[in-house]
Amino acid sequence: MTDEPLLRVSALSKFYGSRVGCDNVSFDLWPGEVLAVVGESGSGKTTLLNCLSTRLLPSSGTASYRMRDGQFRELYRMSEAERRFLMRTDWGFVHQNPADGLRMTVSAGANVGERLMAVGDRHYGKIRATAVDWLSRVEIEEDRIDDEPRAFSGGMRQRLQIARNLVTGPRLVFMDEPTGGLDVSVQARLLDLLRGLVTDLGLAAIVVTHDLAVARLLSQRMMVMKDGRVVESGLTDRVLDDPRAPYTQLLVSSILQV
Amino acid sequence: MTAQPTDIATYNFAYLDEQTKRMIRRAILKGIAIPGYQVPFASREMPMPYGWGTGGVQVTASIIGPDDVLKVIDQGADDTTNAVSIRAFFKKVANVAVTTDTAAATIIQTRHRIPEHPLTAGQVLVYQVPIPEPLRFLEPRETETRKMHALEEYGLMHVKLYEDIAKHGRIATTYAYPVKVEGRYVMDPSPTPKFDNPKMHRSPALQLFGAGREKRIYAVPPFTDVVSLDFEDHPFEVQTFDQPCALCAAENVYLDEVILDDHGGHMFVCSDTDYCEKRRADGHRGHLAPETDLAPGNMEPAR
Amino acid sequence: MPTPLVVSDVAKSFTMHLRDGIKLPVVAGVSFSIKAGECTVLGGPSGAGKSSILKMLYGNYAVDEGQIIVTHEDGLIDLARASPRTVLSVRRQTIGYVSQFLRTVPRVSALDVVAEPLVERGEEREAARAKARALLAQLNLPEKLWMLPPATFSGGEQQRVNIARGFITEHPILLLDEPTASLDATNRDVVIELIAAKKAAGVALLGIFHDHEVREAVADRVIDVTAFAPGKLAA
């Protein structure tokens, strides 16, 4: 374990005109740590995720990322070329809707191989072998490698999206409701898979979800957001078992018991 | 319009007004300065429909002078509708000399071929381009593709080639085969057969590309590196033909299949008609060549 | 040997914001320490706050007041104020915990549930599984269950998986929240043996045992939690 965080976020705010997207959010994320950001729709959790992943520029505040050379770089001062390079090598972004993160009209193998080709891999045989390996890691049969994701079920698409993101060995993955819209049994499989991959690869992840069970299963730390502000944060089990903020208590008490 | 071909003053020279030509020349100069980069330009309505070479015609109209000699080919042939009508157009609006002889032309406007006869310094090859964006079918957003060009993010281009190999066991793209120009921009060479790609590499001629509907001009200056994209284990290869031209016996040229009857009879002949005729005039004979032949130059459009 | 855990003047209450913010005090003035090689037992009736104390010591409940000083990685840490990252590190290296109920994860086998804490501490997966097998065998969990996810196990079977998970590591401090509640006599005896072995290895144990027999067998010292009732402090 290193003594320095991977990501340092300080007083990050995003306003849409006079409306608040997220307000004064600060935290550090260490390597291998999974942070869940929970809250209801409109709480600003997706705005925060988009700012952190530089898909959106914040109105104020800073975020710096420790590059592979150990140097911290201010995300919002990087050139777009550098940010996009980071996005397709050292970072991953798993969208709620796999169609947003996949190329639906090219094969599963090419979806996985694209990032490799983007960083200059020019050996078809090796790219394909890597794609086969990753498909098996996300439990997609090898004989589906040349099928388009259009022919895949929702759960398979989501697993393919994960493989596509992890193939370059990123250190930080952003996930926006990764299990949203999936059947419960499919969700369980995906969560288990994600959990395993995060542990095996030592990934740091920021997972936005409104599902507290997902947060408990995947994350060690949690931030609860409401109206763009962080109302409570801490260890995931502490926040869920001993919620302090009124809103967190409301959220926790609203979980359906099976 | 009652103007006669000799009545040149009725038109501005080469149809376009001088301001438009100036604008297009600036786009061309910018294209030459940034090889392979697609320069937007204010494409004009031309007296022919989009898809009939309006981009190439505007480029030609902007660079042509009274002393130029123009050749126009369509799929290698000088005598097909598109070639004939564009040639007639410039005879009428610029009163320039026209030719079918590749070596004699100063400007060659082409649809989908590069002549077999090697081009020389001082010649200009003007391509008619339907879709200038090589990334178009993989990434439909123009905002995104422009960004990808700007940031040199070309992984997607290899995705297309990967898909080819995955589906067909080899790179099955045979025309509009993407190239990298001078180590920087990935460019669509227009729907020429990939057979012609090596001719673009370090060509002594200036190559200009005009896409009228898409409003883009791009260029490859003389002696510029043009490299076809490929994989280490699936290198770029051009088409090969297992027989020579049926009329002139030429080998290592691009052949078209010609249907002879409705019983499956066919032959393969040079797609470059000028090249084929010259060879026959020089006495080369393929196995299906007629005893007597048309003399070259007999196919000038009738007035 | 330094005292591994010192609790001083710890207070805990719950504020129920959904019920007009009423404050439910749980414990106050909690002060004690535990020793290496000893098993300290928290005694007192249900509702006296025994489980809450254990949960605070594990960082699972927030602490209102006071200090929880832990010897961790050659230093002293106040768990009551520690950052989440520090708490995680303490859990990984210093404090183990056997909860009352097993929180199951879909699709993870009993064997891997047990082996996981070792893997997290950097042990090879196969070596960790070997130790997990030995423990599960010792706890008489039928071998045919080892590769199944424990979600569908009986209460006693889940409890044994939970115990194995807690005992597999060599944490210097081990918290036990009624580990024997749903076990039969044979397996209770196994747990007593396991606790004795931990004591012999110098581990400081702190537990809640409702089972009188087990408590008699393992306890070196009993702390009466009723002494920490919130009202008493004022009195």
Automatic annotation (TrEMBL), chain A:
Gene3D superfamilies in alphabetical order: P-loop containing nucleotide triphosphate hydrolases
InterPro entries named in the record: AAA+_ATPase, ABC_transporter-like_ATP-bd, ABC_transporter-like_CS, P-loop_NTPase, PhnK
Keywords, alphabetical: ATP-binding, Lyase, Nucleotide-binding
Domain ABC transporter: 7-252
SMART domains cross-referenced by the UniProt entry: AAA
GO molecular function, one term: ATP hydrolysis activity
Matching SUPFAM superfamilies: P-loop containing nucleoside triphosphate hydrolases
Annotated GO biological process: organic phosphonate catabolic process
Stored Pfam families: ABC_tran
Entry keyword Nuclease: no
NCBIfam families: CP_lyasePhnK
Family per record: Belongs to the ABC transporter superfamily.
Protein name as it appears in the record: Phosphonate C-P lyase system protein PhnK
Species assigned in the record: Mesorhizobium intechi
